[in-house]
Amino acid sequence: MTVVQMVNQQTVPAALCVTEETHPRPDGRDQYTISEVAAFTGMSAHTLRWYERIGLMPHVDRSNTGQRRFSNRDLDWLAFVGKLRLTGMPVADMVTYAELVREGKRTEPQRKALLEATRTDVVQRIAELQDTLTVLDYKIGTYAGAEQAPERTGA
Amino acid sequence: MTVVQMVNQQTVPAALCVTEETHPRPDGRDQYTISEVAAFTGMSAHTLRWYERIGLMPHVDRSNTGQRRFSNRDLDWLAFVGKLRLTGMPVADMVTYAELVREGKRTEPQRKALLEATRTDVVQRIAELQDTLTVLDYKIGTYAGAEQAPERTGA
DNA sequence: CACTTGCCTGGAGTGCGCTCCAAGGTCTTA
DNA sequence: TAAGACCTTGGAGCGCACTCCAGGCAAGTG
């Protein structure tokens, strides 16, 4: 049975609670194949392998035949990465963050600083977008009355 | 005298009033060289030429020696393009919009539809970012107390 | 007049984030 | 046990949005 197609479900339950275990669990096993993970995260299997290669994933378990077996912890991490990606943070920076995590507790101050910088960026992006929204609304306003498919208006 | 460096001033007066004439006028001439425009828009001269090549700019005036002379109208258009760019709209779509504008008044319904679709995207992006902010705050919270540069804390 | 600075062009190059390919091994279901 | 879906790897390729280069013209300054 082929894995169900459910790409692009970014809208996971909002409280993804990183490294806590409130994760949408595909089933009870805590062992997911790459295509399952692809389906759940909306990332492609290619991307998941690539993330691992560049050091954006902590080492993923393998089956005795060498196939990846992702854990719930991995899923949590990927959900967080997905969020960071939404902010437009460069992948290289996420790798840096991942490296800091790997280095252990003593890097927490740096990690905090990094996230705070990201936070600032996000706040600014939101402001920019809201500004853009104003412009867009103004522009749309100037087209007011111009309806799509203007023929057969008299229905 | 070289043009003043003031790259990256995205934060133009918010009411940029596309094709209206409330524009920050570099001086009174209504004729700007490419490097002046680059300074005012924060786009590189390369990018401005490229935008023209791909049809994202209405035809720009030229001096008798063939140099570009941008008008206030061009600046307005570029400000709008800058806003669209912030939304993440692909350049190809902006070109489409520019083509519609060139085709005249009868394309207004399409243009309106296009902007409305963009608006929807922007609203969604804002929501995503706000969601991300929540996650970020949660994460930062877990690092609370971890201060940058922990040595010499006892000051 | 030489020199510097700025502009022009077509086309090539860059960096990012994937995305795909080839060649092969594995797992599942009939 | 055989087909077919799935997994593995290193490395090549792609699309986007620039970004830069070479070679050349034009205008201002000492």
UniProtKB/TrEMBL annotation, chains A, B:
Keywords: DNA-binding
Domain HTH merR-type positions: 31-100
Gene3D superfamilies documented for this protein: 1.10.1660.10
SMART domains: HTH_MERR
Pfam family, one: MerR_1
GO molecular function: DNA binding; DNA-binding transcription factor activity
Coiled coil (UniProt feature): none
Domain of life: Bacteria
Xref: InterPro entries: DNA-bd_dom_put_sf, MerR-type_HTH_dom, MerR_fam
PANTHER family assigned: HTH-TYPE TRANSCRIPTIONAL REGULATOR ADHR, REDOX-CYCLING DRUG-SENSING TRANSCRIPTIONAL ACTIVATOR SOXR
Entry protein name: DNA-binding transcriptional regulator, MerR family
